[in-house]
Amino acid sequence: MGLSSETVATRPFEGQKPGTSGLRRKTTIFQQPHYTENFVQSTFSAVGRELAGSTLVIGGDGRFFMKAAVDIIVKMAAANGVRRLIIGQNGLFSTPAVSCVIRKRQATGGIILTASHNPGGPDGDFGIKYNTANGGPAPERITSQIFEHTKTISEYKICRGVEVDISKTGLNDFNVNGNSFTVEVIDSVADYVIKMKQIFDFPAIKEFLNGDIKIVINAMHGVMGVYAKQIFLKEFGLPADSCVNCEPKEDFGGHHPDPNLTYAPDLLALLKKGIHGFGAAFDGDGDRNMILGKNGFFVSPCDSVSVMAANAEYIPYFKKNGVKGLSRSMPTSGALDRVAAEKGIDCYEVPTGWKFFGNLMDAGKVSLCGEESYGTGSDHIREKDGCWAVLAWLSILAGRKQTVEEILMDHWKTYGRNFFTRWDYEDVAADKAKAMVARLRTLIDATQTADFIGRSFTQEGKSYIIAKADDFEYTDPIDHSVAKNQGIRIIMEDGSRIIFRLSGTSSSGATIRMYIDNYIDDPSTYGQDAQVVLKPFIQIALEISKLKEFTGRDAPTVIT
């Protein structure tokens, strides 16, 4: 006997506008009656005619409310004419794995249930993001359509009779409104591991890891725990203590699943003991990564992608296919540009948001890209990929037979060092953050920059002269779309940069990000702490922005 759907009356909720990585709000907001349903229906409406008879991939990072959201999506997909859903077992899929499965199964798209590196649990954050057929985040034309639908929605469709046990793999067939509807629950890890084996030399990595080096992988109680166990314990045969915090938890163990020195102090402390030669951490949904060497040697995300580009020959995928081009987000340091110039390949500067890399990859212009926010990836999928980055590093370590620190020191000797830091001020009152940015935009306004350009600032005997200031604007070379107001840039005569952005990934308040990028070609400084070297320039950035005066903050929440 077939099932029938029903139409439920609803009303719009204010502010359901997707950011750079979907819609993120406090979990309690998503739990409001009709709130999640409204956004899902609006997403389906934006997909449009392609939805009928489509295949969608569904999964998330295991945070609180994810399973409830999966159940809602299953019931609504059935009512909206979707033909097939592919769901990770227990609802679990890393964001890179969703992209991988979309591409492998030639799905119409996918819905990812994650707030990435934001906290989880009943009092934490939740998020919903739609990815398109190329496996990448929906472009602005689609997210804008979703937002427009959320403002006018009056009803949604749902089939409450569809029940699926997502803890068991297999097929679940239904007849809804006279149409066949199938929910396929698959192993969350299998397709992704197959893809990694096509990219990397697993036997060579296994041989290296079973040598003198000892490593540790920290999944921060996010979704990557199931992937880390399969790859590092089963495939590479490492001891169980090589993987820590690998049980996915709805609240990430009460911690902030953000792989940086502030939120992963346990990994840093472990590496500082000098026992492990390599350590890595992943965020909640597995698209971000942090790399550490022996004695806690920290690899900046900007340096990480640059080292990969400079050593691409150690990665079989690149050795076979070559590196077509490189790309970085605008706030990311210029270290990658120097590798590109040396190797004679193009390097594209794009706004923050992985979706901007997708067009370049689809057009065959970029093979490797990265963001300063701990995101690195290649054109094997259309998302940043934390595990891929770790396997890339292990391939380079195995090939060069050097330590992490030795590789970085050699890299800086060849290319010079871009000293870089990012200061995050989280949960700033939105009106204060906007007021600070408004003042900066006044300073860089084309009609008033004459008083700003050429100004000299000095701190601790170091002087910098402003050569250029603007609000970054990007014209996509593929589809010619224009992205404006992507970050305020203050560029000095020596090429050093100060950048300010309001983050698009916060669920409440505002996050001000201040980026400092200073290139120094002096070998005597390469081993120094970036915070020490950059201190004068940081003070100048604070002086120009009057950040302390506007926010009342004496220190950032997180320093990268």
Overview of the molecule:
- The mean pLDDT is 95.
- Strand 10, helix 8 and strand 11 (243-244) form a beta-alpha-beta unit.
- The chain is of the alpha/beta class.
- It starts with 5 loop residues before the first strand and ends with a strand.
- The relative contact order is 0.11.
Strand fraction: 25-35%
- Tell the overall outline: globular
Q: Main β-sheet, in a few words? A: 7 strands, mixed
Chain oligomer state: single chain
| Backbone structural class | alpha/beta
Work out the number of β strands.
27
Can you summarize this structure?
34% of the residues lie in helices and 26% in strands. It is of the alpha/beta class and 560 residues long.
Topology:
Blueprint: E1 6-9, E2 23-26, H1 27-30, H2 35-47, E3 55-60, H3 66-79, E4 84-92, H4 95-105, E5 109-113, E6 125-131, H5 140-152, E7 155-158, E8 170-176, E9 179-186, H6 190-199, H7 202-209, E10 215-218, H8 224-235, E11 243-244, H9 265-272, E12 278-282, E13 289-293, E14 297-299, H10 301-310, H11 316-321, E15 326-329, H12 335-343, E16 347-350, H13 355-362, E17 368-371, E18 375-378, H14 386-400, H15 404-415, E19 417-428, H16 430-444, E20 456-459, E21 462-471, E22 474-475, E23 482-483, E24 488-492, E25 497-502, E26 510-520, H17 530-545, H18 547-551, E27 558-559
Parallel strand pairs: 3-4, 3-5, 4-9, 10-11, 10-12, 15-16, 15-17
Antiparallel strand pairs: 1-7, 2-6, 5-6, 8-9, 12-13, 13-14, 17-18, 19-26, 19-27, 20-21, 21-24, 22-23, 24-25, 25-26
Helix pairs in contact: 2-3, 2-5, 7-14, 10-12
Properties at a glance:
about 35% helix, alpha/beta, about 550 residues, seven-stranded mixed beta sheet, seven-stranded antiparallel beta sheet, single chain
